[in-house]
Amino acid sequence: MKHMLTISKLTKHFSIQERTLIALQDIDLSVTEGEFITIIGPSGCGKSTLLRCIAGFEPPTTGFVHVEGQEVSRPGIDRMMVFQGLDQLFPWLTALENVAFALRVTRTARGTAKSRALARGYINLVGLRGYEDFYPHQLSGGMKQRVAIARALSVQPKILLMDEPFGSLDAFTRKALQEELTSIWQKTMVTVLFVTHNIEEAIVQGDRIIAMSPQPGRILSVIDNPILRPRTPDSTEFADIWDALHRLLGIQKGPAGGALRPPQKTAPFEEIETPHLVAT
Q1: What is the pLDDT of residue 251?
Q2: Confidence at residue 149, expressed as pLDDT on a 0 to 100 scale
Q3: Which residues, including other chains, have CB under 8 Å from residue 100's CB and lie 6 or more apart?
Q4: 149 class by beta-carbon count within 10 Å (0-12 exposed, 13-18 middle, 19+ buried)
């Protein structure tokens, strides 16, 4: 398998007046085509900043991001991002029109008829057949996220970047969408980088799990996940990875599915989050 994504010595600083926040430091990572990678770590460790650097929304302070050997210097439709918030859709467009708009504006499909036909296929892919003409305010949170995923996939990106896409959903909907996303990934084999705070979700979804340190964000370890899909928490292998992640992240074990709660510590000045300068 060829390398789809290569990150080399990536460091990202944010500066305001005389203050500096070190969001990421010396990130090295290679991702092969079709991999499903999950990224986990405490709040403020730079997980979202890492995705934004890959997307081209944030330039690295030092280091490089390459996609198929080409340096990333700006956003592009080869890297599409799905966010946590449930307000990603255009409220004046229907579910179908939201997806068709992406196809037209990126010139993936030319003409209204072709863009709507392709959009309908992606709406069906995410399990929303029959909801094409619903507006965002008529859809549940889970349905909105399905439309956002359909829109991102419709332009056929090489990499799908997902920043806690299910974090705002209830546990039942979250589990259903985890299964749906796995099914979509198996059909499309798009390369996925998926940020989460949830250890169970990281193990269920990821074929490799990137564990990150508190700010400044560094990669503590890359854990291979050999468990066959579908994955459930009742296997010995699942418990082994669960224990390894708890040890790496320095948190006390709790019930399966719990979010990260690292021990509190006093951070040096450059690691302190400020209201105007936060990396998550």
Answers
A1: 66
A2: 96
A3: 109, 112, 115, 116, 118, 119
A4: buried
Residue 3: name the closest of 62, 68, 56 by CA: 68
The CA-based diameter of the chain, rounded to the nearest angstrom, is 58
* Helical (H) or strand (E) element with 97: helix 95-105
Residue with tokens 């490799």: 208
DSSP code of residue 133 = T
Name residue, tokens 């854990």: 223
User: Tell me, what's the pLDDT at 129?
Assistant: 96
In single-letter form, the type of residue at position 272 comes to: I
Residue that is written with structure tokens 């079709």 in the block: 34
In this predicted structure, what is the pLDDT of residue 226? 95
- Residue 41's Cβ-count burial label (10 Å; 0-12, 13-18, 19+) is buried
Place of tokens 């918030």: 85
CB 58, CB 229: distance < 8 Å: no
The confidence score (pLDDT) of residue 107 equals 85
The Cα–Cα gap between 152 and 144 comes to 12
pLDDT of amino acid 268: 37
Helix (H) or strand (E) holding 194: strand 191-196
Q: Which residues of the chain have pLDDT under 70?
A: 251-280
